[in-house]
Design goal:
32% of the residues lie in helices and 10% in strands. It is an alpha/beta fold and 259 residues long. Helix 4 links the parallel strand 5 and strand 6.
């Protein structure tokens, strides 16, 4: 049996520090998003947007097994999967689409990307303290994080890739099936994960959503959709989100389920 190509994507939620105690050798690639590279020296890729401050990046030269992934790399892959407007303009999803396009994984495992930000006093929003809740900004591409999560999982499924969430938090905006690190270590069959994921989706609904995207034709090749935001209709994007959510409720966490 060939060795599985398993990719870890990790963000900056407080629970991401769990990975500092894991044996990350099980993962073919470990992709840190923005500041998350500080959690472990075992990252292989650091992905960040154009406006990520230089003083927050690791010092050069990088180790031989590490590389940066910038807009020069991820915009091209993002566009192959429909572009930022449909995928959701935040790095958690961008990292997933880049991994799908560039690394061709069998499994993508997320942690630290739940996009849930506590408003309770004394609680930190990120592992390093308080940070900006980027996915919650006023952005027409992020009206439903659940819809964008469903879309990413569906697109991965088309490439025979399973996506899971390793988070131990009780709440998450990601709709991926929950697994633990122990589950990943004991995986007996990638086929079983794909079979489970196949069962989640209704192909007709997926095709309906993708057709609606194509008909609307919202694609900005540069990736800088915010520079022409007035050309796009948030209500039309909300309708597509509703299809990805499998219901008329844009806040639904349901998948594009089979009936």
């Amino acid at each position: 049996m060939r060795q599985l190509n398993i990719v870890l994507i990790f963000g900056s939620a407080p629970n991401v520090t769990e990975i500092s105690h894991w044996d990350l050798s099980i993962f073919t690639s470990c992709i840190a998003i923005n500041n998350a590279w500080k959690v472990t020296p075992q990252w292989t890729h650091l992905i960040f947007p154009e406006d990520f401050p230089i003083d927050r990046r690791p010092q050069l030269p990088l180790n031989t097994h590490q590389k940066w992934v910038t807009a020069n790399e991820f915009v091209t892959h993002q566009n192959k999967f429909g572009g930022f407007i449909y995928a959701g303009g935040t790095m958690s999803f961008t990292a997933g689409y880049w991994a799908l396009g560039e690394l061709k994984p069998d499994i993508i495992a997320y942690i630290g990307c739940d996009m849930v930000y506590s408003a309770e006093a004394g609680q930190t929003s990120h592992f390093y303290g308080h940070g900006t809740a980027d996915p919650l900004r006023d952005d027409m591409t992020l009206q439903s994080l659940e819809a964008k999560s469903n879309r990413l999982m569906a697109m991965a499924n088309m490439q025979n890739c399973a996506i899971v969430n390793l988070s131990s938090l009780p709440e998450s905006r990601l709709t991926f099936p929950r697994k633990t690190f122990a589950d990943i270590q004991q995986l007996a069959s990638h086929k079983e994960m794909i079979a489970h994921q196949n069962h989640l989706f209704d192909t007709q609904k997926i095709n309906k959503a993708l057709s609606a995207e194509t008909e609307l034709g919202y694609l900005v090749a540069s990736g800088r959709y915010w520079e022409s935001v007035n050309q796009f209709d948030p209500e039309q994007l909300r309708k597509i989100d509703d299809i990805w959510n499998g219901s008329g409720n844009q806040n639904s966490s349901e998948l594009v389920l089979q009936n």
